[in-house]
Fold:
Amino acid sequence: VQLVESGGGLVQPGGSLRLSCTTSKLTSGFTFSFYVVSWYRQVPGKERELVAQISSRGGRINYADSVKGRFTISRDNPKNTVSLQMNSLKPEDTAVYYCNVQDSWGQGTQVTVSS
Structure:
């Protein structure tokens, strides 16, 4: 499956961004609602880390400790979309954010938090 992320950008500390992950128009025969969807992030020189994860129907959600209370993951299965609402952003949230479903990854979207 081809995943497409969007919504990254440059924001000041304390600001908000909303990332979205959806399947490419080229993807067919894939039932989005069957799968766990995760958001990861990576900075140069460091391993990719799990930020948030949501179960197939949204009943189970997990967050990294570093983002709890600030980030919210949600999904809209009929629209094949998972969103990551990021509030109270900090400079240490700066990274490339990736969407993941099983062994498929999007191309990533850059989030930069800086004044």
About this structure: The longest strand covers residues 17-23. The mean pLDDT is 94.
